[in-house]
Amino acid sequence: MKSRILFLLFVAMMTFSACSKKSAPPPMPYEKGSEEYEYLSSIKDKTILLDPDVNTEIISTKKFSIYSGQVIPFIYPKLKRYETNTDMLEVKYVHDLIIKTAKFLAEKQVFVNAAKSKKITVEQSAIDSVLTAYYKSMGTEEAFYKDLNYRGMTKAFFLQDVEESLMIKNFLDQYVYAKIPQPTEEELLAEYNKEKTATFHQMLMKTAGKTDEEKKEIYAKMQDLLKRAQAGEDLDELIKNNSEDNRSKDKGGLYTNVSRGIMLDEFKEVAFSTPIGEFSDVFETEQGYHFIKVVERKKEKRSFEDVKNRLQQALEFRARYNAEEELREKLKKEYKYKELVESL
Description:
The chain is α+β, with helices and mostly antiparallel strands and about 350 residues long. It has 12 helices and 7 strands. The strands form 2 sheets. The chain has a 4-stranded antiparallel beta sheet. Strand 1 (about 55-60) and strand 2 form a beta hairpin. The longest helix is centred in the C-terminal third of the chain and has 31 residues, at about 305-335. The protein starts with about 35 loop residues before the first helix and ends in a 5-residue tail after the last strand. Residues about 1-20 have low confidence and may be disordered.
């Protein structure tokens, strides 16, 4: 598994390098009369962030800002797919896509600045190795850059992004990951002895796009359904008639042997702490409100020695991820990072 920052190397074609110092807003990317300008004008009612004449500041820090004009070119190919049916472009999808990309760019720039402050450099051979892999993915260098241009990124910006991504990797390797101790034998054994999978029935009611008042009503309904289930009402029928999880409701909300590693953190905590055979309380994740009935949980069947190396890799990855997240939040605080436009 790779860290979140290493993922930058795989999304370079969809990102844009932000300004490294506080300055005036950059010019808007498209001239009046251009195909891109006219298309954006036709869909700007979705969100002001698509207006080709308005460069909205989305994220501010004390050293740089991210503007809508910097983000739009790199989501434009996705927007263009809806050219013949713009009614299918949902306002929330477009707005949140722009915000998500802006956050990504801002967090990336914070790490770039941190790397530069430590005078981190990148060997040309490392850059060439990454570029070669990209070129092979498209067959030839020419084909790669032709596709790159179609996606809305110039060669110069792409090369800069690759170098900055490698710079961040070198920075993390030297100043973050190198300080993380190796997991001990006791930590590996503790991880080995954890229950690895859970089987449960789930009731789900979604809350995306709901108002606070609507969420209160949904929560109250979930509490009522939970009480009915606890009182002995047929759980399969309750879930079939009320759950909004289309993947499982027709089979009584049953999920079998779900791995701990793929669960959302809030869900994982409940699934592995609720006693077997009992119901959880109503709890919330980004998907909505849930309650579950735990059927069984299982531990690792293989021997400790057989999985020791894999456990060590998992713990190392987790430690790196946590250290990276901690540093990211620390740097954002130092930069006085502020999101000026909220997700819908």
